Amino acid sequence: MNSDRVLKLLEKANAFPPEVFCVVLRRDEDRLTSVYTTYSGIFLLGSSIAIESSGIAGWVARNGQEYLWNAPEPQDSDPYYIELVPDVKCELCVPVLEHGRAIGAVTFESSKPGFFEGDRKRKFRNLAQDLGRYFLLNISPTDGDLVLPESSLLLPEDEQHARVIVSGVTDELLWQLSRMPERIHSLSPRAFEELVAQLLSDMGYNVQLTPRQKDGGYDVLAEADLPAGRILTLVECKKWSPNNPVSVEVVRGLYGVLNISNATHAMIATTSRFTRDAHQLQDSIKYQLSLKDFDDIKSWLWRYAIEAEETE
Questions:
Q1: Please, what is the average pLDDT of the chain?
Q2: Phi, psi (degrees; rounded to nearest 5) at 303
Q3: 214 shares a domain with 251
Q4: Is 155 inside any structural domain?
Q5: Is the domain of 131 the same as that of 166?
Q6: pLDDT tens digit sequence for 253-280
Q7: Percent of the chain scored above 70 by pLDDT?
Q8: Among 45, 121, 130, 169, which lies 20 to 30 A Cα-Cα from 156?
Q9: What is the CATH number of the domain that holds 277?
Q10: Beta-strand relationship, 229-238 and 265-270
């Protein structure tokens, strides 16, 4: 994984940090989810936020219109601008439209006042359309200039495969979550599935993600060769709020899927916790099914903080 690789189109447009930052956002009903970003250590890939709390990007997604913001005088203010990066002087946000409806937005920020004025505004508007067409509409440009970064979490071509090998969770994201695990709650459900798959991969499992549309009772296949033999684990991921515990019905459902599959083990991983009944059932089948709650996910992430400290 290389978080420094970016789209060649961004480089050709001089849309490269630290002068210009870019985020591609997908609209998921009433939320926006980041599917590509050139931010490093600030904006989490796969993070999701309510449209009404998304500032300029939220306004653009709601109205389907372009928005240009320039840093106002101290006595003025913009009701939609939300500061993500210090010293930003202007922001251009362009909607991505499909059949007249905004399905997302591409936003650019610069530390240079008036950077997106004049001809440059037209150039970045066209660039936003190219990025939106690729990431949100899955239309590749004909000139072959668009290069997909390995650091992107939510790749358009993922949806074309029956099973997808995880490759998108960056070292930067793992480090951020190891330091601030509460940010896991800002990930989209799909990003949480990819995170769990990556964590298991780093533990030595061979992992595969099921497609987003599939609802076969599990989200990740994790295979491992142990001295005692080969095991296959079905992993179901529940990206739920902390006050919404996973019930015994969910455990019972995955156990039923396990019994009609060729797998040897099952696991439920959640950003929440489990009810008492869920724990009681799991205790009776503890050699076949395991439960991993938010505290367990945090413990899995500790290794990345330790590794980062050892390299400093």
A1: 77
A2: -60, -30
A3: yes
A4: no
A5: no
A6: 999 989 888 899 999 999 999 999 999 9
A7: 74
A8: 121
A9: 3.40.1350.10
A10: parallel
